[in-house]
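Human: We require from you a protein record containing the residue sequence and its fold in token form, and nothing else.

Assistant:
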Amino acid sequence: MSQKRVQEQRTAVRQVMSKVTNEIGGISLANFEQLCHAVGGGLRIPLSPMPNTVRRSDTVTEQQRLESIERMAVLYTPAEECFDRITRLASRLFATPIAMLSVVGDQHIWFKSRIGTEISEVSRADGFSGVAMDHVGPLVVPDALADPRFSRCGLVVNAPYARFYAGIAIRSPDGAKIGSLGVIDTEPRHIADAELVYLRDLAAITEDEFHRRHLTSSQQSMIMELGEAQRRSMVDPLTSVWNRAGLESILSRELSQLSARGLPLSVAMVDIDHFKEVNDKFGHGAGDTALVEVARRLRAAARPHDSVTRFGGEEFVVVLPECDERAAQAVGERLRARIAGNPVVIGQSLQLDITASIGVATAAPNSLPNVLLTRADVALYDAKRGGRNRVVAASPATPIMPVMPLRS
């Protein structure tokens, strides 16, 4: 193959990589087919591995590594769309059912982003990430059951019954190894050396995202002030978003800081339409899958600095800092459209059309968090009563009174 042809193919694949990693909803079918063709054998591109000089040195002690993780405010925090996008892409690139971005703490491994598994945390002895983090270059395990390092690992002997693993260390902005990006298959398999280039590229993209993370000062201070146990208790284990306690904490902080600066704050209260029927007809497992997917779509549609939270049951609240009434209505409509955009796939064949009703409210001067949430709940009730699958904005004149909201 001529050098010119190699360069043309390298450029084509890089363009596809750049495009798909910037797509909000993930990879398009056409680009996915093109990229898989390049990775799977249609194009054998002799790309060179990322130079070792790009990644920082390993002169960091374990204590310094843990301190770096703490400064990043990443351990026991909700999933973020910028990282979910990468694990989705990794799963599709390597045709594996599972992909995860892991943060290795003192005793446990926390899955900051995960595709294909509901497991959010394992002990360091039960995961691959500790070994991958300390490995030079990508770690490839063709068959974990045949590898004495992992044959008794919890992820291997218990669900998801991992057999194949490929992962690579992820570093913090200051150079400390904080975890790994990896893919898992439930069947033994091999991977071509040329394909590992893409794992290196995805690791580099992940590290860039850590540089560009969007946290408001309220989010940052909340995470830094809370201990690991408190943060763990505030993250909903099913949907990987803040739970109600997390909502109360972040909302009161955002409201206080933004009010002092004279900036607006809004909330969007989201309730899945006819959710009881999903549980009744298809079981709670299907309902849980729908909740996880709705939470993911909310993260994808929200702005980078918004906070997605689970209020309870099938109800979510999205905190919208620096967002006035008009902008809140626009964000609410984007949330609604993303939820309703495509059916939720359950198992191998079931597809559910899911919609949601949304009430948005903007804080008045000196407003209290519970008053703001009540106004949003009143607007949500109006959206349900008006036919569902719509966004209703609360009026400043909305009366504050007890409401028996429709929850179906």
Q: What stands out?
A: The radius of gyration is 22 Å. The first helix runs from residue 3 to 21. Confidence is low (pLDDT under 50) at residues 19-57, 397-406. The longest strand covers residues 177-185.
